[in-house]
């Protein structure tokens, strides 16, 4: 008998799950078709709700997955590694070899460092607007601790779109070779990319269409996004 799994996910005022880090874990769970519950929390609920369910978690963040009655696993990669080890008879996340896993991690780093900064600039103001008053205040205060306003952190919209399109070039080329980044079936590299797209689309759907789906003179990324929908639930 397998342990009950409960995934803590952050939601906005409309109860929409938006975190790209959470979605990496959710996509891995959905890919493996593993039964689990999701537990919605807001920014201000995280410090109390997660340690209450998972006493071993002393610095609560999302995603955290509760395994059984009281053990928590933090970080999307750690969750994916746990799933890969615990459910070996389900579709693989990382492939069969260590070298395959290393390629997935390289792609993860590319998404985190080359795509997500531009996406953050394009969504940060709408993220703020889509929180309830208490969470909006938390969001604004925590993001502005470094000395920059939300508007300054957003930067120039046109430059963000330009940067994002430029860094999507290699990804566009890879996807042209198969259905997914990983080929005929999705894997961790795809989950990191799809999760970033979900985050972008959740808050700025018009810019998402312009900067991603319509970034190239073909339907490669639009087709990719369409295929990804089977994993987004």
Walkthrough of the structure:
- This protein has 233 residues and is α+β, with helices and mostly antiparallel strands.
- It contains 11 helices and 4 strands.
- The longest helix is centred in the middle third of the chain and has 32 residues, at 98-129.
- The two termini are 25 Å apart.
- The protein has helices at residues 20-31, 46-53, 76-86, 98-129, 133-143, 150-154, 157-167, 169-175, 188-203, 205-213, 220-228; strands at residues 5-10, 37-41, 64-67, 71-74.
- The chain has a 4-stranded mixed β-sheet, with helices on both faces.
- The protein has 2 domains: 5-86, Glutaredoxin; 98-231, Glutathione S-transferase Yfyf (Class Pi), Chain A, domain 2.
- A hairpin with a 3-residue loop joins β3 (64-67) and β4.
- α9 (188-203) crosses α10 (205-213).
- It is globular.
- It comes from Mortierella alpina.
- Pfam families: GST_C_7 (PF22041), GST_N_3 (PF13417).
- InterPro entries: Glutathione-S-Trfase_C_sf, Glutathione_S-Trfase, Glutathione_S-Trfase_N, GST_Omega/HSP26, GST_UstS-like_C, Thioredoxin-like_sf.
- One of its GO terms (cellular component) is cytoplasm.
- Residues 9-91 form the GST N-terminal domain.
